[in-house]
Amino acid sequence: MNDYNQELFETxxxxxxxxxxxxxxxxxxxxxxxxxxxxxxKVKLPNEYRWFLLNIANGIVSKKDWNFDKLxxxxxxxxxxxxxxxxxxxxxxxxxxxxxxxxxxxxxxYETYVCDDTKSDEEFFYLNDGFKSGVIHLCGYGCGTCSMIxxxxxxFGNVWTEDIAxxxxxxxxxxxxxxxxxxxxxxxxIMTLNQEIKMHxxxxxxxxxxxxxxxxxxxxxxxxxxxxxxxxxxxxxxx
Length: 239
Known about the structure:
Layout: H1 3-19, E1 23-25, H2 31-41, H3 47-55, E2 60-62, E3 96-98, E4 112-114, H4 121-129, E5 135-142, E6 145-150, E7 159-163, H5 164-167, E8 169-172, H6 185-217, H7 222-238
Parallel strand pairs: 3-4
Antiparallel strand pairs: 1-2, 3-8, 5-6, 6-7, 7-8
Helix pairs in contact: 1-6
């Protein structure tokens, strides 16, 4: 087992331990269904994504109605698509596109193309349609934002995010700390699960600080201690 797979397995193990009440890993995909999908659309799934589907899970889905899935479960045997979402059509973008003229580019350090009102309608519609095909959606975040993996085109194997509704932009997922201008599926799923794990521990630390402040100010009483002890006991029993 190489270091990269070790990181993936350790991240999944930790995520399952913390969030087994919130998420479930769906059963793995059927290889015959994937082959049928690949033959139908004349594409190949990126190796990392294909391996995950066949060995880990076809989806990391929320058990709660109000949470978003961490990874969509895909029906490869009967894949829904139309003219805009056809995996057989090339994904056309090769760099981040912003569909307005921004005041600044934030901390995004890689190449960006601005398609604002100085550009022709033809160019706008070409770019606007350029990310709607040649991909498989990985998950949604609400407000029309979603991540997708490219299965057809120059960006094959890379994960992109569509954030048109909120910020008028479409961009490749990236990692500034590791100086990665692109992320493959393994990079992305490790990052996604780790973000949830980090948030979990940040919330725990925040709760501890709140309790300490209450104790210091004299607001912490016997009833608070009883409720806290019962909550801690319940969490231990669930584990």
